[in-house]
Design goal:
By secondary structure, the protein is mainly beta. It has two domains: 82 residues, Immunoglobulin-like (Sandwich), CATH 2.60.40; 130 residues, Sandwich (Immunoglobulin-like). The protein is 0% helix and 41% strand. Strands 8, 10, 11, 13 and 15 form a five-stranded antiparallel sheet that branches. A five-stranded mixed sheet has the order 9-17-16-12-14, with no helix packed on it. The chain has a four-stranded mixed sheet with strand order 1-7-6-3, with no helix packed on it. The radius of gyration is 23 Å and the shape is elongated.
Length: 224
């Protein structure tokens, strides 16, 4: 089998499993048929969360769950198997704090621009926070290429320095509480605009925008 034995795929996405047959010398055996089998039953209490194309090894994720699959070559079945975990797709994002942030004249780093990413469909009417989801924070006003944007930048941690590339865009990952955050830092002595607009964008792995995205933050710069 190719790749790790633990795989993760997001709901509504797909995953192609690959395996090949080798002989006792370790050489690949050509012209053999490899089929895949699902080892777990899909039940309400222990959902698998995906369908399996046995001939192609294609996983189609439909809902959160977990299941084990393994390949079979003629009469040989390996002892190892692949565990596939389906994670929920994000369907909502909201601000987890203030939408207006004031960066006082004596401060270098703003308070956090924070969002909550969650799933409302897996458990109806229940917001389930999602970890491991990407959130892009990007400055949209002023134009990142404009001179007035040169005096500040975005970071993932208050201690981060100016990034060498794309100082006005960062990608954060949600934590176990479904939260992702970014900060604005000013460059000492640099001219600043009166304010800036930062958007937090969230989409599914298949490129669909999540409800509530983008979340727009306004950062007000207080100058001496």
């Amino acid at each position: 089998m190719e790749g790790p034995l633990q795989r993760t795929v997001e709901e509504n996405d797909s995953l192609l499993l690959v395996a090949w047959a080798i002989d006792a010398k370790g050489d690949t055996v050509p012209d053999v048929t490899i089929t895949w089998e699902l080892l777990d039953a899909d039940t309400d209490s222990t959902p698998v969360g995906f369908s399996l194309d046995a001939q192609r090894g294609l996983i189609s994720a439909t809902s959160p769950g977990q299941g084990r699959v393994r390949p079979t070559v003629e009469s040989f079945t390996p002892a190892e198997y692949i565990t596939v975990t389906v994670t929920g797709a994000p369907d909502s994002v909201i601000a987890a704090g203030d939408l207006t942030i004031v960066l006082a004249s004596g401060e270098v780093t703003s308070s956090k621009l924070e969002v909550l990413v969650y799933d409302l469909t897996t458990i109806p009417a229940t917001a389930v926070p999602l970890s491991g989801k990407s959130v892009q924070f990007a400055v949209v006003v002023p134009d990142p290429d404009a001179a007035e944007a040169a005096g500040f930048f975005l970071v993932l941690s208050p201690q981060d320095s100016v990034p060498e590339e794309a100082p006005h865009t960062v990608v954060a990952t949600t934590d176990d509480m479904g939260l992702a955050r970014a900060f604005v830092r000013r460059i000492a002595g640099a001219a600043l605009p009166d304010s800036a607009v930062v958007q937090a964008n969230v989409s599914t792995v298949i490129g669909e925008a999540v409800r509530g995205s983008p979340v727009r933050f306004v950062v007000i710069f207080e100058n001496d």
